[in-house]
């Protein structure tokens, strides 16, 4: 099934059922994305799996996202001040954070946490991306889909471990990738890249101890956003490809 | 009457059959598995978080280190996601080179898998045979990229360099005489393509050798037939992909179903199992090696006949040649910007998947328009496979756990990321 057909199938399935709560996004890059509220998520996922026209029999991936630094830059390149362009050395983003510091969230206009599901229909050969924004920033909760796709088990544990997103209904929501006894959720943007603690063997106590990190955070290439339209339009891209092939 | 107790057994992380750093907590009733709880993450390096702090082009090398036995396929997934976001075309010659090296990688992966799987189950010879052939293919890696394992060869918009005209040679040393060296260098006199063509001619006979040792081997069959059976429905629900899914009888292969690069122009078949046990998955993978060999042959033929560029000439993405940089101001600027700042991708998100030797390897990129990914999620096949360990191992004997780990083709670089 191609992208247009899938979009239509989605629109017709969800128009009657959950009107405004399911947002079907346009098919950029040949991919379809829908956005769902957490309270409707389980119903929508059940329909996605069981509806014969959609038939998403496989859950490919679950990905947690922290949008709190979306659009943040370390180096302003659009305009200069009377002291010139910025130098890209101000501590601002998660790559530079030190122990105990906080980041300033950008206002990207979205909730902080989201869970992105990638679904695949092996039978009908199409894919779908579903994004569920979490309501609360302090306690992000989404329903677990483990009853629908058992593959969700470890993916949900991973998103919980790395982002602290709680999957309601998951029977065994333990940490999975980080160490036993790890504190914090390391993929959140306010978790420093160098971490909080380091481990070493203490000669006096004759055991392994944890202590605050001693290494300095550093950024070799500042994060910069440039919008010079270099990838504009498929026409230019294809014209370029023709030039390349010639 | 003696008291009967259930045992909890720690399998790994320092166990030779645990394929790296798997810690498996097994609840045993005698010698039967009641529950298997894999503890992973001992090799967690936060690749995805590291990628968030680096320009796009500097993370290609990290992809090699995910599944460190199928390096170039990992790179492929990552550059495909970038190319999707950038909306650029890859020169056809580069596509053929990529496909050829994807298939070389598939053989490399399956050789390591068959060697270690058989070794775990008790067939020592397979390991030695498989590594003999891996040597040749890693020489091909070395010839094209300079590195035998972590190649960092693919680039957004093509590949790093064209195929070389000569192969690296063995040298005489205290341990190898001139006569031995000459014999080793015999098929290395021509170009890389000559060397690979020679390999593709030799390889089917090698696969026959493996099959002679295993396919009808009584011990091998006793250890794999009817072990770890997964029904097609369960395989889909558990998120299986690649040979794990095909072994259960589902004819699903991204190279056929959602073709990327030039796979739609090539002639190859998708082997499918029937019973979904370890033996069927073995047969599927062995047949896949033969099919990969066919694809490599076709790519060699095409690459011999067709010349062309191997990297896009859009210098906002791919650097210009070094000679140009020495004399041309524009090229110097491109060079400087690419290697200090990298390139910015347009705002958006994309998911690109390739048929990795182990299954579906996908990269989900979220870009906010910066020169670094906002979020990179790597979807690795092994993660879903290992999460089904409990279901596959339950009710089997302890020794079968080893066969199941082997059949899942576990590599911890990709599972722990």
Short structural description:
Chain A is an alpha/beta fold and 246 residues long.
Descriptive terms for the model:
heterodimer, A: 246 residues, alpha/beta, five-stranded mixed β-sheet, two-stranded parallel sheet, 9 strands, B: 417 residues, mainly alpha, three-stranded antiparallel β-sheet, 18 helices, 49% helix, 11% strand
Low-confidence spans of chain A? none
Across the major sheet of chain A, the strand order is: 1-2-5-4-3
- Give the N-terminus to C-terminus distance of chain A in angstroms: 33 Å
User: What's the total helix number of chain B?
Assistant: 18
Oligomer: heterodimer
Q: List low-confidence stretches of chain B.
A: none
- Please state roughly what percent of the residues of chain B sit in beta strands, choosing from under 5%, 5-15%, 15-25%, 25-35%, 35-45% or over 45%: 5-15%
Distance between the termini of chain B: 49 Å
Secondary-structure content class of chain B = mainly alpha
| Greatest interface (CB-CB under 8 A), with counts per chain | A-B, 57 and 67 residues
Q: How would a textbook summarize the main sheet of chain A?
A: 5 strands, mixed
**Number of DSSP strands of chain A?**
9
Radius of gyration of CA atoms of chain A, rounded to a whole number? 22 Å
Order of helices and strands of chain B: EEEHHHHHEEHHHHHHHHHEEEHHHH
For the largest beta-sheet of chain B, the strand count, sense and barrel status come to:
3 strands, antiparallel
Helix content of chain B: 40-55%
What Rg of chain B, in angstroms, do the CA atoms define? 23 Å
Mean of all residue-level pLDDT scores of chain B? 89
Strand order of the largest sheet of chain B: 1-2-3
What best-fitting shape of chain A do the alpha-carbon axes yield? Answer: flat
| Helix content range of chain A | 10-25%
């Amino acid at each position: 099934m191609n992208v247009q057909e899938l979009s239509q199938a989605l629109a017709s399935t969800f128009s009657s059922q959950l009107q405004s709560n399911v947002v079907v996004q346009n098919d950029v890059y040949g991919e379809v994305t829908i956005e769902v509220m957490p309270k409707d998520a389980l119903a929508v996922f059940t329909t996605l799996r069981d509806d014969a026209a959609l038939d998403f029999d496989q859950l490919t991936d679950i990905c947690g996202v922290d949008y709190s630094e979306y659009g943040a830059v370390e180096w302003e390149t659009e305009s200069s001040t009377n002291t010139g362009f910025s130098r890209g050395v101000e501590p601002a983003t998660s790559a530079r954070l030190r122990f105990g510091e906080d980041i300033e969230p950008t206002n990207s206009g979205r909730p902080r946490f989201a869970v992105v599901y990638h679904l695949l229909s092996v039978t009908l050969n199409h894919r779908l991306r579903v994004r569920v924004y979490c309501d609360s920033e302090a306690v992000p909760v989404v329903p677990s889909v483990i009853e629908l796709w058992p593959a969700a088990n470890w993916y949900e544990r991973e998103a919980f471990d790395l982002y602290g997103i709680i999957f309601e209904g998951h029977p065994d929501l333990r940490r999975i990738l980080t160490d036993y006894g790890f504190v914090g959720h390391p993929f959140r943007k306010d978790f420093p890249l160098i971490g909080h603690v380091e481990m070493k063997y203490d000669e006096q106590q004759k055991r392994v101890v944890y202590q605050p990190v001693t290494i300095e955070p550093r950024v070799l290439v500042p994060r910069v956003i440039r919008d010079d339209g270099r990838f504009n339009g498929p026409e230019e891209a294809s014209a370029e490809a023709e030039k390349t092939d010639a | 009457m003696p008291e009967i107790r259930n045992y909890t057994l720690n399998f790994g992380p320092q166990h030779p059959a645990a394929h790296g750093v798997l810690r498996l907590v097994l609840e045993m009733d005698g010698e039967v598995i009641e529950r298997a709880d894999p503890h992973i993450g001992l090799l967690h390096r936060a690749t995805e978080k590291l990628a968030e702090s680096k320009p796009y082009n500097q993370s290609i090398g990290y992809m090699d280190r995910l599944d460190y036995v199928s390096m170039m396929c990992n790179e492929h997934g990552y550059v495909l996601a970038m190319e999707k976001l950038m909306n650029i075309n890859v020169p056809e010659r580069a596509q053929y080179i990529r496909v050829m090296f994807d298939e070389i990688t598939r053989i490399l992966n399956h050789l390591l898998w068959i060697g270690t799987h058989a070794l775990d189950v008790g067939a020592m010879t397979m390991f030695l045979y498989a590594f003999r052939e891996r040597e040749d293919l890693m020489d091909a890696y070395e010839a094209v990229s300079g590195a035998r394992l972590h190649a960092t060869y693919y680039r957004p918009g093509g590949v790093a360099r064209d195929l070389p005209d000569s192969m690296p040679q063995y040298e005489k040393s205290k341990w190898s005489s001139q006569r031995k060296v000459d014999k080793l260098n015999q098929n290395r006199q021509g170009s890389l393509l000559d060397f690979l063509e020679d390999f593709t001619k030799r390889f089917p006979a090698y696969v026959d050798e493996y099959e002679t040792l295993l396919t009808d081997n009584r011990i091998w069959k006793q250890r794999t037939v009817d072990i770890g059976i997964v029904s097609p429905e369960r395989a889909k629900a558990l998120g299986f992909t690649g040979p794990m899914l095909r072994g259960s009888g589902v004819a699903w292969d991204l190279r056929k179903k959602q073709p990327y690069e030039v796979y739609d122009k090539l002639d190859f078949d998708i082997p499918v199992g029937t019973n979904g046990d370890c033996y069927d998955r073995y047969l599927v993978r062995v047949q896949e090696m033969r099919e990969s060999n066919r694809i490599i042959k076709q790519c060699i033929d095409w690459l011999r006949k067709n010349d062309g560029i191997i990297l896009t000439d859009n210098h906002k993405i791919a650097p210009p040649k070094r000679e140009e940089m020495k004399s041309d101001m524009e090229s110097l600027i491109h060079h400087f910007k690419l290697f200090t700042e990298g390139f910015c991708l347009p705002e958006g998100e994309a998911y690109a998947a390739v048929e990795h030797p182990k299954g579906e390897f996908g990269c989900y990129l979220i870009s906010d328009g910066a020169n670094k990914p906002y979020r990179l999620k790597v979807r690795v096949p092994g993660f879903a496979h290992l999460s089904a360990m409990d279901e596959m191992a339950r009710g089997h004997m302890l020794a079968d756990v080893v066969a199941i780990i082997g059949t899942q083709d576990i590599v911890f670089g990709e599972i722990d990321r």
